[in-house]
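job 3f2a | input accepted
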Amino acid sequence: MVKVRCSYCGSTWNIENEHMQARSKGGTVTVPACQRCNRIKQDKSISQFLDYIKSNDPYRWRKIVNYQKGRRSDIAKMVRRRRNQ
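job 3f2a | predicted structure (85 res):
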């Protein structure tokens, strides 16, 4: 059985559908996200979300960086850019 993972941190706990672009801003594409990442992201863009996490939640930032290592998604590329800043 394959467990669904959060697209950001890789958690398998309390997975929800999360709009990559906020629904209030016309977003229709959803990805799986844990409840914590989804609540923190709210209506932020992915860039704003990653910047916020990096500066305010070091534990979750480390989880995101570790999960995105070696991945080839757009999210992983954005994480690598921020990690190297």
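job 3f2a | The longest strand covers residues 15-19.
job 3f2a | closed
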